[in-house]
Amino acid sequence: MIDVLYFAWVRERIGLPRERLETTAATVMDLIIELRARAEHYAWAFEDITSLRVALDQELSSFDAPLAGVREIAFFPPMTGG
Amino acid sequence: MQVSVQAEPFDLGALSNDFAARASGAGAIVTFCGLVRDNGGSLAAMEIEHYPGMTEKAIAAMVDQAITRWALVDALVVHRYGRLAGAEAIMMVATAARHRADAFAAAEFLMDYLKSRAPFWKKELSADAAEWVAATQADEAALKRW
């Protein structure tokens, strides 16, 4: 099981801030492909991954990173702090 | 080091004075405060979302890096989230060093990193629209100078 978190417009497109999923995805990209296939609003949220960032267990990561041992994954747009 | 991620407003003067009082051995203190900017006069509020847990860790890591790189005496970051009105203070950075060049450089480094690497997302709300603030190429390019 993995906790999947969504922030900003990714959260708005998907319609929830977090969910717990059962997945066999080996990498972040594999999980994105699974999520896109779930429903149209997921496909919309993940349509352009160049406008997305990903964090694994609260550390910025990349789309080809493996998911083995990861407990929490978060998807969000580029950050706008400061 | 002091890092605070909070919904509540902060007192820039009081925090600056406390920071200065603690920074023994420093010869220079730089403080920066970012405000909600109302570009066209139509802004009703700004909504700031963050990633609890990751935000504090990411900021602590960048402050650690700044302290080591510029041999800072101390550093402070306060960043708010939630709904803010126009002209309200969003965040502040303070750096204390022996000399001003290090204090200024460390403050600029922290500002550049907070902008693009701290998990906050800003949404501008006006009377009839709500729009996520987009990150810019310039924000990302600013990281390259460090």
TrEMBL record, chain A:
InterPro entries: Beta-grasp_dom_sf, Mopterin_synth/thiamin_S_b, ThiS/MoaD-like. This is Molybdopterin synthase sulfur carrier subunit. Pfam families: ThiS. The lineage of its organism: Bacteria, Pseudomonadati, Pseudomonadota, Alphaproteobacteria, Rhodobacterales. SUPFAM superfamilies: MoaD/ThiS. It comes from the Bacteria. It comes from Cypionkella aquatica.
UniProtKB/TrEMBL annotation, chain B:
Pfam families: MoaE (PF02391). One of its GO terms (molecular function) is molybdopterin synthase activity. This is Molybdopterin synthase catalytic subunit. The keyword Ribosomal protein does not apply. Converts molybdopterin precursor Z into molybdopterin. This requires the incorporation of two sulfur atoms into precursor Z to generate a dithiolene group. The sulfur is provided by MoaD. It comes from Cypionkella aquatica. It comes from the Bacteria. Pathway: Cofactor biosynthesis; molybdopterin biosynthesis. The keyword rRNA-binding does not apply. It catalyses: 2 [molybdopterin-synthase sulfur-carrier protein]-C-terminal-Gly-aminoethanethioate + cyclic pyranopterin phosphate + H2O = molybdopterin + 2 [molybdopterin-synthase sulfur-carrier protein]-C-terminal Gly-Gly + 2 H(+).
